[in-house]
Amino acid sequence: MFDNVKKWWKGTDAIRSQDQNTGQMKIIKPAKRPLIVNIIGNISIVLKNIYIFFIKEWKALIPILFTILNFIYAHSIDQSNKKNNEEYKRCEVQTESNKSVIIKCLK
Asked: Are 93 and 103 in contact (CB under 8 A)?
């Protein structure tokens, strides 16, 4: 089946035949495939090559993937810590008593 698809994809050669009555050579050319078929074929070839690359190199790609995920995780933790540790711009004493002091701060 794969060979049939491969032959169809590459196209067939023109059929040459000789007319019995006149002796003239007839060339019958097959119809050209539309451009979309060629584009889909090129995309499928690229996807196949990417798939073969991942099959061969999966052992090297796993540590790279974990490293990238580690950087993403560390960045998200860093961003969440920055949000919680914003500096206070202005603090005012709201009430004072002998036992307690209430301070109101604005971020």
From this structure: yes
